[in-house]
Design brief:
By secondary structure, the chain is mainly alpha-helical. 48% of the residues lie in helices and 9% in strands. The strands form 2 sheets. Strands 1-2 form a two-stranded antiparallel ribbon. Strands 3-4 form a two-stranded parallel ribbon. A hairpin with a 5-residue loop joins β1 and β2 (76-82). The model has no long low-confidence stretch (mean pLDDT 85).
């Protein structure tokens, strides 16, 4: 028997086994995402209705903020969130800071993460997962290092490993390291752990802002 042939067949077998495991994990994760999103929507729908009414009374239309964000492999999708900032004229967008545009209502929605609830519909649509790296801005795609760009090898999530390890209170480079770690260590057990810790973090309202910013500073490029 040819030793090289046996070794080659064994390597091919391991590769197929790994691929089958990844496919199985992807299917399992999607099932959990859909079931989890449906359950969450059933539980929080009254709260979402009240939040929508509050935004309409305080800030007017639109109630939902829509923005293109990079999804799996950087493919753009329309992400939904509750609006937290004032409407401004087109010529005022770049002259007003986020602090000027953020309302008291918006501050509360962000501090309690209620603004993220509409993303459950993105999960149902298959554009996001319950757990994964947060979808950032499209303009950041060209600024990532090859290692940082690996965060897009999985679907973005409503919460993630970086969110429970500092969220907006840590620097970009550390956040991306945590995102890539999740990509390399993703499992359903880890997802359940992240979801449970996320609930606790929301209750404690930890890591909402970076010091000196109402949310987080802009990413200027990888290092």
């Amino acid at each position: 028997m040819n030793l090289n042939s046996v070794t080659k067949d064994f390597i091919i077998f391991l590769a197929k086994l790994g691929e089958n495991k990844r496919i199985l994990n992807t299917i399992q994760k999607r099932i959990v995402d859909v079931a989890g999103a449906i359950i969450c929507l059933c539980l929080v729908s009254p709260l979402m209705i009240l939040t929508a009414i509050w935004i309409r009374l305080v800030m007017g239309h639109p109630i939902i903020f829509r923005q293109q964000r990079p999804g799996l492999y950087g493919k753009p999708f329309c992400m939904f969130k509750f609006r937290t900032m004032k409407n401004v004229e087109e010529n005022e967008v770049y002259s007003l800071s986020d602090a000027d545009r953020l309302t008291h209502c918006g501050c509360f929605l962000r501090s309690t993460s209620l603004d993220e609830l509409p993303e459950l519909f993105n999960v149902l649509r298959g554009e996001m997962s319950l757990v994964g790296p947060r979808p950032l801005l499209m303009k950041y795609l060209e600024l990532y290092t090859p290692e940082q760009a690996r965060r897009h090898n999985v679907k973005p999530g409503i919460t993630g490993w970086a969110q429970i390890n500092g969220r907006n209170a840590i620097i970009w480079e550390e956040k991306f390291k945590l995102d890539v770690w999740y990509v390399d260590n993703m499992s359903l057990l880890l997802d359940f752990k992240i979801i449970l810790i996320t609930i606790w973090k929301i209750i404690k309202r930890e890591g909402i802002n970076q010091r000196g910013h109402v949310t987080t500073e802009e990413f200027m490029g990888g290092k």
